[in-house]
Fold:
Amino acid sequence: MNLPPLSLHHLHCLTDATGIIQHARLSIPDRHSGYTGDDNSRALVLAVHLQALRPRAPADQLLRTYVAFLRSVQRPDGWFMNLAGDDPANPDDLSEDCFGRCVWACAEVVQCETAPPAMRDTGRAMLQAALPHAWRLQTIRGCANALLGAALLPDAGDVTAYLADRLVAAYGRSADREWRWFEPILTYDLGRMPQALFRAARRLRDARYHEVAEATLAFLLQVQTADGVFAPIGSKGWYARGGERAIWDQQSLEAGALAEACIDAYAVTHHAGYIDLARWAFDWYLGGNMLRIPLHDPATGRCFDALTPGRPNLNCGAESLLSYLLAYTALRGVEGLAIWRRGAPLFARTGSGVRIPSPPPDQSPRGFQPFSSTIIEMNFIDVRLRRC
Structure:
């Protein structure tokens, strides 16, 4: 695939003994911005993937640091807080997005065969405390992020189905022939929703999840293409149904999330075009964007935060860096691996040993109605791969 060399220099610059620092002023870590569960859970997923790519290497200190951070932000009742040092009783620190990402990260640790037993045991204990909250998640991103982890656990079929059903139900309420999405607006981290459903489809072999995942991924590819390149929905205005889509500012996490969604799509469909689409989305970082400007510096490992009118946002914070590296390691994981081309899992999985709680009686999915969807035409793959 001709990927750039892997550089972890900026990752180490942003990470100290506590965790990964949220923001940077240019390339200098901004310690005043503190640490978040959002970024440290992403960093933990990355550390697991780096470990999987280097199975004979000893456990990285990064892995230990991020596991310890997540443990420090988990409340006694199992909920993960987003802000380090926050009062556990603070009712405002209830981000479902963050909670779901932390569940995902813990599941990755539990399933990492090369992680030290103490770290896997810690991840297992955190999951045990957190998973009862998964039955009460309401937001689609919270459900999707938690589903990305639950679908990795061989003994979490019930909670996987519950979370996937929540996404499918949201799609049924919102989608029509022209707007194939879970909400009436496209905002941020869009690729994670179809990615989660692809994982659920692979785990449970449910055609409903596969169908919605393909429909929504095709829609994202359709509306996020401009002049043959990937053009994420801009954060200055987003894209509401019936309105005009915002072009700027394009956030780095969108390219990485879409690339990873395409890789999970390949795992389910075995359609080789999805690997090409993953690389097409990833090329946004390397200059395959509307300004033809690279956002990643291979010499330093830095990644700019966003693409703004005329130039990148020159700050190089954690979210943009982690989005790039997560997509990079996912692409490295499929590069030349015949086992992946046969549809085997990207990273070796093993029994989790986590007891999955049953749904409380009042938390079972209700009112689920199958939706009528259109046939998904696959010719979008060829259209998306055209280069300028």
